[in-house]
Amino acid sequence: MPRMIFVSLPVTQLEASIAFYKALGFQQNPQFSDDTAACMVWSEAIHAMLLTHAKWRTFTDRPLPPPGTSAVMLSLALDSRDAVDAMNRAAAAHGGQADVNPMQDLGFMYARDLADPDGHLWGAFWMAPAELHPTDPQLGTAQ
User: Fold this and answer.
1) Is 17 helix (H, G, I), strand (E, B) or coil?
2) Which among 17, 71, 106, 129 has most CB atoms closer than 10 A?
């Protein structure tokens, strides 16, 4: 079996979250979706499991993070700067928030962060490592 990651995210409104993730370019896998959860596929290896709070509580009794806090940010590599901008526009237009952190433009890398309707953080970035100079001071080390 190939190595895969399934990131589980508690959501308050499952249908709204499904629409949000579809707008970002995820595809829903109906085989692993029902009225309590939705499997949203980014790639063959990356899946986001959107779970109602009731479903989330079947996995853990640890408290949900308070609104406005974050414990993790997941980042997705995109094909171009335009794709990064488009994902941010889609986030803002579908119940999320664009540019939750300052945009980064390092020349070889361009990144903008967004939040889904429940405040889960995602980084959208484009990178062209070939444009990085081996001793680029932005990284602090030689590559």
Assistant:
1) helix
2) 17
